């Protein structure tokens, strides 16, 4: 249920706040019915970017359209078709689930309030808990209630600001299943997250650092364009091995992954030459592997000089 026109298409967006350049020359297209994930360190400009894309914040420079409307001249029209779910739970904890949704529906001026709230409760699996106080809910159920509240007015665009922070893995997975159902029905979703496994569930991802979009595209495209060759190594005292490897030519990055170590570089020939003596050591087990999104993003930050290599 996707259209040929992008849900969002912007060029050259820039924004300064408090005398600091927060976003610099940001351009992107997001297809209707796609989930676009924004990643980046705290303070990288993710929230500011999302707010500009949907007309909640006016850029200092640049132009674009969202849901067919100009993001500057028609921002009011965009806001009426956006659902926003903040990171912090913002509903009334002394009201029940049903009472919270009734209240929010009245704020939106939702027609056929009773039917709309009822169908939303059913869609999000909240019917059996509708009389439970919001303050008594676990993090996962609060998250589900917050999602229900921002869907009551049938938005075409959903904005999620780190929606699964502090939520257990099972609730995170169920939440993402719901988001994909919404996207299949044609809703466009912008989500900021720090979780790489969640980023891999997005149709496209963008990595922001110091206000600049350093990487963007489909996950497979991002991994392929990185040019990284990555080896995974297991064995004893990997911390000491990592310190030694970082001094070798062709080793651009080492990163610990649980009980293993990822060793990456963009010059495959030089990397393999440098690793030759280490791979010959029988106490280590080496396997060439696909670089992870985390490998790619850390390498990108190092290359951009945002973090030390």
Number of strands: 14
Order of helices and strands: EEEHEEHEHHHEHEHEEHEHEEHEH
- Tell me the distance between the termini: 44 Å
Task: State the fourth-level CATH superfamily of the largest domain.
Answer: P-loop containing nucleotide triphosphate hydrolases
Mean pLDDT: 91
CATH A-level architecture of the largest domain: 3-Layer(aba) Sandwich
Q: Which radius of gyration do the C-alpha atoms yield?
A: 22 Å
* Main sheet strand line-up: 6-7-8-3-9-10
What fold name goes in the CATH topology slot of the largest domain?
Rossmann fold
The DSSP helix count reads 11
Number of domains: 2
Describe the structure.
The protein is built from eleven helices and 14 strands. By secondary structure, it is of the alpha/beta class. The protein has two domains: 8-222, 3-Layer(aba) Sandwich (Rossmann fold), CATH 3.40.50; 227-290, Malonyl-CoA ACP transacylase, ACP-binding (Alpha-Beta Plaits). A six-stranded mixed beta sheet has the order 6-7-8-3-9-10, with helices on both faces. The chain has a four-stranded antiparallel beta sheet with strand order 2-1-4-5. Helix 3 crosses helix 4 (113-123). The longest helix has 16 residues, at 169-184. It is globular. The two termini are 44 Å apart. The model has no long low-confidence stretch (mean pLDDT 91).
